[in-house]
Design a protein that fits this description.
Layout: H1 3-12, E1 16-17, E2 23-24, H2 26-48, H3 55-83, H4 89-114, H5 123-126
Antiparallel strand pairs: 1-2
Helix pairs in contact: 3-4
Length: 140
């Protein structure tokens, strides 16, 4: 199609019909293509500047961070019992439940906001960390 004819079509507001009767607006399609190319170039630039790091390089460190956070949160009830010896067993159980609920809520929120479906991921990744070696994964 000549440039003049393409310009005439745009000015006339006509759509181009392609296979299966689908109609495309050449101006919109061109803008989408340019946007995609710009985004791709931004990604390549970020990778070159090491602002983007491949997931497989981050997963081990992220797993260690999540394990440390989980261990600290789950240790709160024990520290409460030590500092507040007057707490009953029930109080300790409530503290454990609150900590587990907080971890679960954080995991749910992270999954929801990231739009990640990790249902096929190992439990250690889904739940933030694995139980220490030799210990069973806590029931949830």
């Amino acid at each position: 199609m000549s440039r003049q004819k393409g310009d005439d079509l745009r000015k006339a507001g006509r759509l181009v019909t392609v296979a299966r009767g689908q109609q495309l607006d050449p101006v919109r399609e061109n803008a989408l293509h340019k946007r995609s190319m710009r985004e791709l170039n931004e990604i390549k630039k970020a990778e070159a500047e090491r602002r983007l790091v491949p997931v497989d390089e981050i997963e081990p460190a992220w797993g260690r961070i999540m394990t440390a956070i989980r261990a600290q949160v789950l240790g709160v009830p024990g520290r409460l019992r030590f500092r507040l010896p007057h707490l009953t067993d029930y109080d300790g159980q409530v503290a454990e439940e609150v900590c587990r609920d907080a971890l679960e809520a954080a995991a749910d929120e992270a999954e929801r906001t990231a739009g990640v479906d990790d249902s096929d991921a190992p439990a250690a990744i889904r739940h933030g960390a694995a139980a220490p070696k030799g210990e069973p994964q806590p029931e949830r």
